[in-house]
Amino acid sequence: MASLKPETVVDFFRLVMDAESGNRAQALEDLRFRFGDQWSVTMQNARKVDERPQFVINETDGYCRQVVNHLRQMRPRGRARPVGNGGDLEVAKVLTGIGRHIEVHSDADNAYDTAMEFAVTMGWGYWRVLTDYVADVSFDQDIRVAVLDNPFSVYFDPSSVLPDGSDAKRCLISTMIKKTDFKAQWPNAETSGFEQRGSGDTDPDWETQEDIRIAEYFWIESERQKLVLLSDKSTVWEDALPPEAVLAKEGLAIISERESFRKTVKWAKCTNREVLEEKTLPGRFIPVIPVYGVNVPLDGKRLRMGLVRMARDPQRLVNYWQTSVTETIALAPKAKWMMEEGQDEGHEREWQRANVSTSPVLHYKGVDDSGREMPPPQRIQPEPPPAGAVESAMMASQNLQRVLGMFDPVNLEHTGPKSGEAIHAETGQSEQSNYHYYDNETRSIRHTWRIFLDYAPVIYDTERTLDIMGEDDKPDQVTVNQMKTEDGIEKMHNPITVGMYDVIMDVGPGYNTKRQEAVATLMNLMRTPLGEKIAQVADFAVVRQMDFSGASMIADLLEAANPLAKLDEDSDVPPKAQLMIKSLQNQLQQAMQQIQMLSDKDRAEMQRLSVREQGETTREHLRQTAKAHDIDSRERATLHDVQTRALSAQNVEEIKGLVHLLMHRLNAGPEIAAAQAGEAQTV
After folding, report:
1. Residue ranges per domain, the chain?
2. pTM of the predicted structure, to 2 decimals
3. Angstrom distance (rounded) from CA 163 to CA 423
């Protein structure tokens, strides 16, 4: 049996309409005004009767787009942080990656941008957080951010005063579905739709014979209960408190207790007559998030408006005076020609079309019938547009800039050339005038992240591998609620169901913009003496910031070769201490290399000296050998000469003896012959 009655939803709708009917009527006019419906009905009717022009020089839309596009470039990014009760820094990083994956996977940018378009235009917009099954055949659910493209279909708690809507207790969303789908989902329900509608929620397209309107209703129920504080600083509701024996076994004791309120978020889908569905949602907040432009209390109600509200009158003046100037010029008589009578004789057609023809030549009769020369025809210049109307048109455009606080830098007074810093300062002047839009978007996205953190322990309550998104927008996967045994003790790894976490916001340019600015800054630093030190310890980080094909691969190679980059994320040693240790190790390694280099140099010098000494010894030996050889050669030559002279003298003496002997024999030859002859005769 459903606890909600349809009458409760109808009563809430009437309460919202009583509080917001004025805002809704003005917002609808703002929306139409921005997109071109800028002439009042009275002026339109009067000009249509007189067939007078009514131009729309829509400068307002350009200013709105300027604000919205600046917000798109400066997307706030949420980050989880532990705040106690078992919160862990590493688990906070996992929750941050889960939240960023939720935004990317559900195209949350579209939801944020759509809401901001409406907030800038008329004063408020919405998006919502919901859950959906991962696939038709899966029981696992994921968290999603959904767009609400018609803020007039949302009826938010009029008692909510916080800029992010976190204090809302009730909310209603009116939607349309096909009657065939309605009967398929609720075959026993009456086809009587939710008939109540407010301004902006009465489009005829929503009133068809094939569609039916239903309402989603959110509300928070508060139940008084006792909150118990345990000795480990954790808190638990009294009805969920374990028995004393279990507490004693775990070494826990009750420290304190107090009365509090336990909030439960409820959701129902209903028609005008009956409740179709009803269930309990996770978390503490209504999962519909508003984002406001200007939201101030006035005369007992909330006044909400955007950029267009105060721009209406200046924009209407721009349209009026621009139309007036154009109308004056259009109605002014066309430029006429003054000539003597008969000068166009034979060229009448040519002169009749002179104001509309593109012919570069006009022929005329130069003499009259009597032969007198006539001067050429002269053009009579028409009256210029009234100077007052032109000046009023320019003043109206300047007034529009003053009202919006957004000035064209061209119109600002300055002398001489302007630096980049000066141009940035002029641009920042306009941004500061509308910074409250960015600030309000940051608050709303922060509240969205709080809803993520409330939903995560309920939706991801079992061991499961989830996709996450890193700081550098690189996708990754992580297993949560995983039981592991370490040193014989079973322990849960990445327990996102335990602990309390809050959100802090990173504001400013998005990651890609920051990366481009970082590259420019690093390139400037690399040209300084500091750049050499950066290149030694963080060369891979510099390359990783660059956006070109292959940058990541080069950065990975440099990181692998850099000992300071090899940090152990699972180590108990803090990263800073690891960096110091790595730095000391690197310095020691460099010192050892220097010692080795010095040793190598010493050995090389000693070897060089040894080779030099050996060379000198060899050369000296060669010199001594050569010298001894020369002495021996000279002694041998001298001895040879003596021996030769002695032998020659002996030979000479022997020859002399032989000659003497021969001469003696020659002289004694006759005597011997006579003697021999005598002896023969004797015989």
Report:
1. 6-53+61-307+435-486
2. 0.72
3. 32
